[in-house]
Specification:
The structure is a single chain. This protein has 16 helices and six strands. Strand 4 and strand 5 form a beta hairpin. Helix 3 packs parallel to helix 7, helix 5 runs antiparallel to helix 7 and helix 13 crosses helix 14. The longest helix is centred in the first third of the chain and has 29 residues.
Length: about 400
């Protein structure tokens, strides 16, 4: 990112341009993998947008270096233009990252177009100041020696992009430490850590402004996000977008090794009643819709400011909830709430069939430990008793 002041030194241009071309090449590979991937979630779309804008930003940095180094004849209009592109694109990339971070954390504030527009206001203000800098000189201007100098409001150009990243980071860390959600923590920490490298290397580049540090920091951060997001996708069931069986095994094994004071460990096995009839009568596509709706109903039931639940899809029509509660009565109440919320789906979605579930409950005894498979088998056995007794 260009910083005001300094002198021209043609020797650095080659290395500066080379570094940004290398970063563009790496980002092109990531963008290609995202575009060709089977995952078309909104978060992946936003990540692709961040990468694309960063590539444009790196091109703008190359243009700036060519102007600053005298490869392209330097004059006032070109000096203004090269800096306008870099500052505006960096702000846009940071704004999209903020929207992406909120999407990854399932914050509904960014779902509405109006809210996204309101959140983008700092970008518009920063852009307007850049575009009018030639006339006003408020954020930067070219002095009589044809040198770029910071204006009275130059700090805004720094605060806006890094402000978005820092805000996203703070929100993510707060959520990571305040929410008792095992699988979400990797996402929260990823979002929290993301700005560290770009900000640190960006600060160094502000001091040594002809050394291409920020581009490496940005690429490293984006690569970290891509790898973490991919790992997270591997841990999710592709249909219902909740944890898969492997993640459930990891979490359950961890909980069976460490007892929480004052809490008992419960495993609830949820099975959709007569899902085969839905598939046979209405088709497997409708059966998939029923699975997703039941998963969402269970997820909604398990939400809460003090919830200690881990939800996963266990098999074709089975779900597992791992819960830490004080009493078995709480687990029974949770099972009843799940049944009630699932039964309301027919009314909510106007389906031509009724949906119900059966729930089996098992409580883990830390004084008489058993294997993970045996613990699951206890819940499965209780589920079978519920079905046989016709308790829906």
């Amino acid at each position: 990112m260009p910083v005001v002041g300094g002198f021209k030194a043609l020797g650095y241009v080659f290395y500066y341009v080379e570094a940004h071309i290398a970063c563009i090449f790496l980002l092109t590979i990531l963008l290609y993998k995202i575009a060709k991937g089977v995952n078309k979630q909104l978060s992946q779309v936003y990540l692709g947008d961040v990468i694309f804008v960063l590539m444009l930003y790196f091109l703008a940095e190359i243009f700036w270096a060519l102007v600053d180094g005298g490869v392209i004849t330097s004059n006032k209009p070109l000096l203004y233009l090269s800096n306008i592109f870099t500052y505006m694109l960096l702000s846009v990339a940071s704004y999209i990252w903020f929207v992406l971070s909120e999407t990854l954390q399932q914050d509904t504030i960014v779902e509405k177009f109006v809210n996204r527009v309101l959140l983008s206001i700092p970008v518009w203000i920063s852009g307007a100041l850049c575009l009018t800098a030639y006339k006003t000189g408020l954020v930067f201007y070219v002095d009589e020696n044809n040198k770029l100098v910071g204006g009275k409001l130059y700090l805004i150009l720094i605060v806006v992009p890094f402000g978005y990243m820092i805000a996203a980071s703070i929100k993510a860390f707060v959520r990571a430490f305040n929410r008792d959600r095992y699988t979400d923590r990797s996402i929260y920490f990823m979002i929290g850590v993301f700005p560290i490298t770009p900000i640190l290397l960006g600060a160094l580049q502000a001091r040594y402004w002809r050394v291409p540090l920020l581009c490496y920091g940005a690429v490293a951060a984006v690569l970290y996000v891509y790898i973490t997001s991919t790992d997270n996708l591997i841990s999710l069931d592709p249909l219902t977008q909740i944890n898969n069986k492997n993640q459930m095994y990891k979490y359950l094994a961890q909980k069976m090794r460490s007892e929480e004071p004052g809490l008992s460990l419960f495993l609830l096995m949820v099975d959709i009643d007569k899902l085969k009839n839905i598939n046979d009568t209405f088709g497997h596509l409708e059966g998939d819709r029923a699975l997703v709706r039941v998963a969402n109903a269970i997820k909604d039931t398990c939400q809460g400011p003090r919830s200690r639940f881990f939800l996963s899809r266990y098999g074709g029509d089975e779900f597992v909830i791992i819960a830490e509660m004080s009493y078995r009565a709480e687990a029974t109440w949770l099972a009843d709430q799940i049944k009630h919320n699932v039964q309301r789906l027919s009314e909510t979605f106007g389906t031509a069939y009724d949906i119900s579930v059966s729930v089996g409950i098992a409580q883990y005894d830390y004084q008489a430990p058993i294997s993970l498979q045996a613990f699951i088998a206890r819940a499965d056995s209780d589920l079978y008793k519920q079905k046989k007794a016709g308790v829906y």
